[in-house]
Amino acid sequence: MVGREVSESCVDSMIIEMVSSYCDRFCSAKPELAARRIEAIGYQVGLQLSERYTMERPRFSDHLEAIKFICKDFWSELFKKQIDNLKTNHRGTFVLQDNRFRWLTRMSIDPSETNANTSDDPSVATTESKSAQSASMHLYFPCGIIRGALTNLGIPCAVSADMSNLPACSFVVRIKA
Amino acid sequence: MIVCIAVVGHQNNPLYLQSFTEADDALKLHHIVHCSLDVIDERVNNPKKTGPTLNETFLGLLYPTENYKVYGYLTNTKVKFILVTTDLDVRDADVRNFFRRFHSAYVDAVSNPFHVPGKKITSRTFAERVSTIVKSFGLSTAV
Amino acid sequence: MDPTSSNLGKMLLEEITPVVMILRTPLVEESCRKNGLSFIQMIQPFSNFNNIDVPVRTASDQPYRLHQFKLRLHYASDICQPNVEAAEEHLKEVVTRASDNDLTDLNSDPPQLESLLRSAESESQSSRFQIFNKELIRASSFSEHEAFDHPVACLLVVSSKDDRPVNKFVDFFNTNQFPSLLNNGAMDPKILKYYLLIHDNQDGTSENATNVVSEMRGTFGASDCRMLCINSAENGSKDWQDNPWSACNSDALLGQDLGCFLNMDDLDEIKDLMQELSSKHIIPHMEQKVRVLNQQVSATRKGFRNQIKNLWWRKGKEDTPDAPTGTMYTFSSIESQIRVLGDYAFMLRDYELALSNYRLLSTDYKLDKAWKRYAGVQEMMALTYFMLDQSRKDAEYCMENSFSTYLKLGSSGQRNATRCGLWWTEMLKARDQYKEAASVYFRISNEEPSLHAAVMLEQASYCYLLSKPPMLRKYGFHLVLSGNRYYISDQRKHAIRAYRSALSVYKGNAWRYINDHVHYHIGKWYAVLGIHETAIKHMMLVLACGHQSIATQELFFRDFLQIVQKLGKTFEVFRLQLPVISMPSLKVIFEDHRTYASSAAVDVKESLWKSLEEDLVPSIPIMRTNWLESQPKKKYKDSNICVAGEAIKVDLEFKNPLKISLSVSGVSLICQLSEKTDSVDSEVGDQHATDVDGHLSTSVLQNDLELKKLKSSWELNSCNSSIVLSEVDFTLGGCEKTKVHLAVTPQLEGVLNIVGVRWKLSGSTVGYHNFDAILEKKRVKGKRRTRKSPSSNLKFTVIKSLPKLEGSIINMPERAYAGELRLVVLELRNQSKYPVKNLKMKISHPRFLYPGSFEDIEAKFPSCLEKQIDCKLKGLHASSIQLSSNLLFSFPEDVTIQGGTTFSWPLWLRAASPGSIPLYISIYYEMENVSSDMRYRTLRIHYNIEVLPSLDVSVQINPSPSRLSEFLVRMDIVNKTGSESFQLKQLSFVGCEWEISSLPPNGTACTSQLLIAGQALSSFFKLKKCDKSTCEPTTSSLSTLVGSDVSFGPEAGVLFDISRTPLADFHRYERLHQEKAEEGDPSNIDFILIAQPQESIGGSSAPARLFCHHACHCSIASQIPISWRMDGPQALHHDFSSSFCEIGLCMTIHNSSDYVVSVRIHTPGPQSSTGQLSDATGIAQSPRLAGNQEGWYDVSLVNDIKVTSDVMGTLSGKPASLDSTAPYIWSASSSTKIEVGPMSSTKVPLQVSLFSPGTYNLSNYNLHWSLLLPSNKDGLDRDQVRQTSGTIQGHSYYLTVLQSP
């Protein structure tokens, strides 16, 4: 993988394009379906990336190790930075906070609107303002990636995202018992 | 020489099994691979018996059958690689090296968007790549 | 845990016990036989004691007590190594016996995994294995290298009937009755003896016997003699309950009850005889011997000195070459003594003592390389370790050691190796080291003959099952291995059992190879056993094995067929996997009121037909009601309609999963037809239909039940004649798939139900498949609308037979050239006997296909289109037709097609535009007899015609430079065909307010009227406005096309009448079509080019073909609103010597637009340059090329810009240059500006001055014009394409001035 490079702007615009085309074109009727589609794509990506990035490393003995891997190596492979803050309630819920999530840096939302977005789960935040919702749409993809990676590492889980103050963003991982 | 190389999914379902012998011993090899899964499970479940370092992907020699040696490798994603060889003296380094290269081949194969996760690997490129890796087995430790 | 309570402990306590050798006279046996027992059998039950209490002292005088004890009784004759063959036979017989009693459960289903896990414990302990292992161990008894089989005591038995019994006792010694082992010195002959006199009470009283006993006491010593009275019971009246011999093995002759002559006293006597023997004699004797030996040993071997001596002594012995089995030790040798000591100690449970001696001994043997003995000792050491329950490691080490040592010995040690191994495994099991035990079993199996190996492997597999966590895969693998071995040593039932339990492991997961292997072999073996049904059940599972190699597939398939043959009757399978039916491919084609002319017509989307037919047929609900009302409502709701006597076609795809070819025969549908007539079978059928429906609705169905249903309805089909089923045979090559067309033709009215399909695989196996399971997924073609219950798709209401038209279009070409015009004939056949009436026809592309009039059939083509002198117009129906994308044509009222007749109607086909064009025709007709359920039907015809590009016509119209209200028409014709070359016939101009004439006016339009393939040609025409008087209003001119024609070339005599149908009609549609492309322009005019292919000119053999190309909406409204004319002298004389010559010219400017145009005439000043004839090249073109090019010529559809432009490129020269200085001067104002009102013209005077004679082209002026548009923009919006201003290069005007003489 060394030496292989890809233009960030390309990736950004591709993701944006993907999100918009799913939201507006393919299934504009029902946004939750669009969300599921995007999440599924992310899942696939995460599946494959985790295969790749876990080469050459010993197996993880427990969940925490795997999560740490996601926070450190996996994240820096994807975003050239690590997760800034990891919290857990030791009962299978982890909160990964990225203070400057790359895919949101190009995005700005009227703060008055985003205050409304208290719900940490975009999928249920359907009542919030349009822009915030569309922004949250962009978070299904990384959510999917995380879920795919963890699932492939043998940790079935549900991932949701929260973007109360851009461009900071926190992902909530709930490991299915 | 390497008799057989197999990829087994995390539900112990065969994803890829290629034998490199002329003889029609597919059945036997299947049995051998299938049994070695037991050993892998055992190795993984009680780690005191696992290889040199804890949780290393390379599981080392699983068990010597009457005329084969079976080596195992377990990826982080619970995918098992199983190598059956007839060589009597195999250098551990060679096997490690082999598995490393095989792993990268596998990763590329599953990164193929047309590959359905958890289904058999049908990519021809993968097959060719594997056969080259197998041919070069033991010749040099360089990657 | 207590080792003695473990399995191994029990075994040891049974097996390693003192042996009592028995010598007896025949009479003894005889008297015992009365009870059906041998002597040993008689006393056996009393020879193991669980509740004795014998005080014993160890060698070091520790007292302890024996509570359990056992004696092994053997006849002297048996004390020898059992010979191998006998042992083999015995073992085999044991195994076979085991297999016989579990044949019963072979017919049951294979065990499930969890049940196996539950029963694993009991299974692994099952008596089968116990007995077998015991026998296997027994097989290696009485070897000379170990002492625990050596007889400890000898029981001499003589019957009181023997004459002089005392001497008999003596004879035992004299006559050599001792086994060889005692004599050849391997065992110690001087053993404890005990003398027993048997008295049979049936031989009278026992005084005599007592005397003998007293005599014996005299000779042999008081304590060692005893008398035993038996058979004291009269006539078999037993006074005791539980039979001690019931456990005794059954090889004694049954029927007669054992021990019938023994009464209670006898039993008691025997009991305390054995008691005494063991506790008063044997145990003390052994104890004594242990003590003695121990002293000996310690004297010779214990202590440092002895060790050294011993060691040195052995060293001395080294160099003597020793036998492979090691040196021969006699019983007297110190080693044997130690061994005996050890074994006795072991038997007396003094394990420490035993162990110490064994240790001592093993070193000696090792030094002596007496490997067998060494191994034996090691074995015992391991056992003692186990019994002491200490240091497992040592125990295992010893076992390993002894096992491998035995193996090293080869055949001589093999038996012992096995025994050792068995003990080892028992030891491991006792310590829950099941995995290790299994591997030991495996090692044993490698050494043993296949039968033993099989049993060993099976035990190994159970060990894997018992190991924590259970290693299922190894369990399965070893079962498979043992199954193989069983089969090799033809124990089929065992083999099957092994495989069956292995199945549970492989079931369900993806390991197809293994699965197939197991199932296949189980099937084969069942077949060998003659249990064919089960065999086939298993075989079925491996049949569809696409992943296997061809050879394997053939093998599987062949064996399957063989078994089926063995089965005798044809085997019937529900959902047979060979070949695979792909249910999504199921397609039902049926004709209710819609009938199809061809399968192509069926494939057309229903919606398309609907849209085509919407104003053709009465709307569906009406139709439905009027056939529904005649029926009871409930029967037909949501079921399709079909007509009796008309076939329902079902297309189904069969796929061969194998690489070998399959032969499938007799494929046919299974249907149920329940008639409406109240006959008995109708009830049956009805109730069939209903409960099938019930079945389908609740889609839970057991296969066999379903199979039964299918079979019954199949038999119903075959017997009754009311259904006609088609049968198909075909052969599928490897991995092929084929679409099979099946048909069912109901003959009677009623309710028809297509239930499934049935086929025969290679003549022997019948496969059934029902259709209901997949109906949700599949699309049924011709379905009237999507139904609620899917089953109804295959449920039909059969109504009584109706007339049905079949139609086709005769001589319909697959491909044609664009513009080709031909006459085709629609042919309708009515097979039934009823006539049909008022036919209507709907055509999807009237631009391509147009109904002719009836008399066109016999008309000769194309001559029928030629202009007659009297051209009477026949546009009667044409005028009635409103122009639409598709055309509704109703045949004349009087047209009815009688039954059995054929009716044909002409159609005009014109390939309008290139491409592949689908033509849809739907023909509506009604029945004569309205009584029938359906009043009308439609016939749907579908053709696909491929149209190749041929001539490409583009027209340009420019105002003529010379005359006003006159236009130059330039037509570019490109022949785009590959090979065809065309004969241009005529160009017709449509409409009457203009008149077309060829240019130059002498008739022929262009040089050659022949256009070779790939050539381009452009010809010029003049378009002249003719006076309004002769012209009719445009509306009528649309309906009947009067127009002017120009023929190419002189010899093209006849002209075609474009005002006739079909040309007129086609033209109308062309107009319509091309109008769609561009917005209409009032002043548009159309051209029709008629051509004929080259070959059709001379050769009348080929049907004459006619091409007509329509160029419509050619706008004359040019982009330039103005046109002008120069008027003035053409040639004159002038005397230049006197003065220069001034000539006045007059320019008339006409404004053809409806706006005011301001024109500025700009004439260059004196600096302008010479214009000689040199720029004559520019003549013809300069007007057209001047100004700006784009949007100059009108873009009609048939015209594509590239071609025309390069046509022009060939003709165009460079424009006349403005800046070339002319030898003349415009001598009026250099620019005059005037305004011209709409549709008016003005005159502008001009003057030019010349200075020398010559011919001048006065073209170097230009006009700048601009529209003065009104303020409101809508005028501009209407015609966007126009430009609002421009500059035009002046026309060339030639003036010749001669020097006047």
- Give the DSSP E fraction of chain B (strand runs of 2 or more residues): 15-25%
Q: How far apart, in Å, are the first and last alpha carbons of chain B? A: 19 Å
Question: What share of the residues of chain C does DSSP label as strand, in percent?
Answer: 25-35%
Cα radius of gyration of chain B in angstroms: 14 Å
Organism (chain C): Aquilegia coerulea (Rocky mountain columbine)
Domain TPPC8 second Ig-like (chain C): 819-939
Protein name (chain C): Trafficking protein particle complex subunit 8
Domain TPPC8 first Ig-like (chain C): 605-769
How would you sum up this structure, described in words?
The complex is a heterotrimer of chains A (177), B (143) and C (1301). Chain A has helices at 8-26, 31-53, 63-79, 111-116, 130-152; strands spanning 85-88, 93-98, 157-162, 169-175. Helices cover 50% and strands 13% of the residues of chain A. In chain A, helix 1 packs antiparallel against helix 2 (31-53). Chain A has a single domain (8-109, 129-175), classed as Muramoyl-pentapeptide Carboxypeptidase, domain 2 (2-Layer Sandwich). Chain B has helices spanning 26-45, 92-111, 124-135; strands at 2-8, 14-19, 58-64, 69-74, 80-85. Chain B has a 5-stranded antiparallel sheet with strand order 2-1-5-4-3, with helices on both faces. The longest helix of chain B has 20 residues, at 26-45. By secondary structure, chain C is an alpha+beta fold. Chain C folds into 6 domains: 12-100 and 118-286, Rossmann fold, CATH 3.40.50; 326-569, Alpha Horseshoe (Serine Threonine Protein Phosphatase 5, Tetratricopeptide repeat), CATH 1.25.40.10; 580-591 and 646-799, Immunoglobulins (Immunoglobulin-like, Sandwich); 805-867 and 879-948, Immunoglobulin-like (Sandwich), CATH 2.60.40; 958-1115, Immunoglobulin-like, CATH 2.60.40; 1122-1299, Immunoglobulins (Immunoglobulin-like), CATH 2.60.40.10. In chain C, 35% of the residues lie in helices and 26% in strands. Chain C contains 35 helices and 50 strands. The chains are: A alpha+beta (177), B alpha+beta (143), C alpha+beta (1301). At the A-B interface, helix 2 of A face helix 2 of B.
Quickly describe the structure:
The complex is a heterotrimer of chains A (177), B (143) and C (1301). Chain A is an alpha+beta fold.
